[in-house]
Amino acid sequence: ESGIEVSEIFAHTAKHVDKMAVIRSMHADVPNHEPSLLLMNCG
């Protein structure tokens, strides 16, 4: 088990969380949030 905690609200998701990739943080060279979000979503 991965040990990732999932809220009881998402009980179905909790059953499958060991098969998921969880991204806890990200970094971009663009200092502003708006362009960084666009970069993250579009590549």
Structure, explained:
With 43 residues, this protein is mainly α. The chain has one domain. It is built from 2 helices and no strands. It is elongated and about 35 Å long. The chain starts with 10 loop residues before the first helix and ends with a helix. 0% of the residues are buried.
Tell me what portion of residues adopts beta-strand conformation. under 5%
Q: What is the string of SSEs from the N terminus onward?
A: HH
Instruction: Give a quick account of the main beta sheet: strands, pairing sense, barrel closure.
Output: none
The share of residues in helices is 25-40%
Determine the N-to-C terminus distance: 31 Å
Radius of gyration: 15 Å
The number of distinct structural domains comes to: 1
Q: Please report the total strand number as a whole number.
A: 0
- Secondary structure tally, helices: 2
Q: Report low-confidence residues grouped into runs of 5 or more.
A: none
**Which assembly state applies to the chains in this document?**
single chain
Return the structural class: mainly alpha
Mean pLDDT score: 86
- Overall, the morphology is elongated
